[in-house]
Amino acid sequence: MMEELLKVKDLCVYYPVRSGMFKHVNDYVYAVDGVSFDIKPGESYGVIGESGSGKSTIGQTLVGLLEATSGTITYAGKDVTDKHVRKKMQYNKEVQMIFQDSLSSLNPKKKIIDIIGEPLKNFENLKGVALKKRVVELLKTVGLDEEALYKYPYQFSGGQRQRIGVARAVAPRPKLIIADEPVSALDLSVQAQVLNYMKDIQEKYGVAYLFISHDLGVVHHMCDRLAIMHKGRFVEVGTRDDIYEDPLHIYTKRLLAAIPQTNVLLRKKHRDERQRLECEYDSLKEDYYDKNGHVYPLEQITKTHAVALKKE
């Protein structure tokens, strides 16, 4: 059995809500509430949910941008929840991130050779001709030529900037890339280009992906296993076939029904199905959420499929 590259156990990230003159904590926002999953080397794992579900918080916590309230993050067999451990084992070299907003994630005052070259200088001590050669190779990997080296981020389109973000993430040869909504702001044709480049990179370098998205349609061909997230918890976890062919949680069904359909002849049928699911969601909510609106714990249905359902 293949050993996990990354294992997350009961991860919680809570934000305190303060009020009053002395800013006492009187409540918490449960952004991530007891999430567990693992990623194997070379695998694509998807976390899908609506805005505010907590999925991006998971990614930011894994790369150290946010601190976990509780739970453990294990990478290559070592607990990396503590930032001092991460620094010792060069965790930030092996785990990189692609951000949703490509423009704000690239320094507007730096040229592309400096943006992509920064991790190469920090982690591989490359300089001069060797650095330039490596940056050119990375640009070619994402379909950009040498002319891009001395340009600034604002001189590129959104799709090109996102490809530069992909090249920067790949630069230090990571084993895991966390892709946070990498194509959500792009046109459909450009989305396909970026996803294809990411697939090619995975095949070439054997990198694993944690793919964070709100769109089940986008991740269909990218991910081997998926977790559907709502209100800070996973509501359904399974293989691609489990989620797309046999969805059991009402929230998963609603997300699948929201995927745009190209056959105009079936437009009315799809609209009726979405309306039926909305009625089912309202009438059977207590089967999927407790009286406080929290998601029930996951129950194992098959070896690969788990769903958050009310116990009989």
Tags for this entry?
single chain; 312 residues; alpha/beta; 36% helix; globular
In short:
Keywords: ATP-binding, Nucleotide-binding, Peptide transport, Protein transport, Transport. It contains eleven helices and twelve strands.
Secondary structure topology:
Elements: E1 6-19, E2 24-39, E3 44-48, H1 55-62, E4 70-75, E5 78-79, H2 83-88, H3 91-94, E6 95-98, H4 112-124, H5 128-141, H6 158-170, E7 176-180, H7 188-205, E8 208-213, H8 216-219, E9 225-230, E10 233-239, H9 240-245, H10 250-257, H11 267-283, E11 298-300, E12 306-308
Parallel strand pairs: 3-8, 3-9, 6-7, 7-8
Antiparallel strand pairs: 1-2, 1-4, 4-5, 9-10, 10-12, 11-12
Helix pairs in contact: 4-5, 4-6, 5-6, 6-7, 10-11
Plain-language structure description:
The protein folds into two domains: 6-230, Rossmann fold; 247-311, no CATH class. A hairpin with a 5-residue loop joins β11 (298-300) and β12 (306-308). The protein has eleven helices and twelve strands. With 312 residues, it is of the alpha/beta class. The strands form two sheets. It has an eight-stranded mixed β-sheet with strand order 6-7-8-3-9-10-12-11, with helices on both faces. The protein has a four-stranded antiparallel β-sheet with strand order 2-1-4-5. The protein starts with 5 loop residues before the first strand and ends with a strand. α4 (112-124) packs parallel to α6 (158-170), α5 (128-141) packs across α6 (158-170) and α6 (158-170) packs parallel to α7 (188-205). It has helices spanning 55-62, 83-88, 91-94, 112-124, 128-141, 158-170, 188-205, 216-219, 240-245, 250-257, 267-283, and strands spanning 6-19, 24-39, 44-48, 70-75, 78-79, 95-98, 176-180, 208-213, 225-230, 233-239, 298-300, 306-308.
